[in-house]
Amino acid sequence: MSIRNALLTSIAVLLNSALPSNASTKVVCVGNSITEWSGYVQRLEWLLGTGYTVQNAGSAGKCVLKKAVVKAPVEGPYWGSDAFRSVFTANPTIIIIKLGTNDSKPENWTAFKGEFYKDYSALIDTFLTIKPTPRIYLAFPVPAFSPACCNISPQVIQNEIIPLIDSLGRKRNMPVIDCHTPLLNGRAWFKDGVHPDFNGAQVIAETLYAGLMGTVTVWSNRPQSRALGLPLSLGQSVDHPRFNAQGRVHRESNSTAKPIRKQTRSPLYAR
After folding, report:
1. pLDDT in tens, 133-146
2. Calpha distance 101→61 (Å, rounded)
3. For residues 116 and 202, what is the distance between their CA atoms, to the nearest angstrom?
4. Could you tell me which CATH class the domain 22-250 is placed in?
5. I need a surface site. Which of 66, 144, 176, 177 has the fewest CB within 10 A?
6. Would you kindly state where each structural domain of the chain is located, as residue ranges?
7. Could you read off the pLDDT of 62-86 as tens digits, one per residue?
8. Strand pairing of 249-250 and 242-243?
């Protein structure tokens, strides 16, 4: 071996030994069918890049409310679901909670809306029992559009649930990512009024990415709001691979898109 090659090998060994044995940041996305099925979880992992893994802990039909009406085959509380249990076995570094859409159904909200704030806070406390303690981000539900499927109420989401999540984030000094505002003009991306297509899922992923990276501006104009969001023009996308419903890449591209710069550093947490 030449002196040059020996020197390069020694440097490589030293650099590798300086890295932590487990350099991966584990992000877990807690949510409902939008999390479970839309594909934004896979897109978020792509945007975060090397050093991050993102786990899908979405469960269709699930609610924050502990007393949410249980209906076969999937509707009911997030509490006790397989997805709920998977959060604890994942040993996450970061948890993003994006729930509230199914809570807006009249059979849940009319009877139990007074318990939403308490149950959401209890869900946070439960996740904070994980050791090491994860960093928790709250995310506003995406908008629903009338006529919305599944008995979802767009008005309850926007006028009641989002202010409660915003208030909870401020009281507990937790970052809140606004996944609602960037999609308000995206009705065409919600065929049934509730579930986003590929375009909507992409905006969700971009918004969450910007929130985790601390590169966002304040969207909400509510007093003292700490809501975060990504000011994208609807209809415009970042220049990265498109995904199908299973999150697999296909090769369609948008040459006019403005790319978001991928980052491999640790997130800059909102304060």
Report:
1. 999 999 999 999 99
2. 9
3. 28
4. alpha beta
5. 66
6. 22-250
7. 999 999 999 988 999 999 999 999 9
8. antiparallel
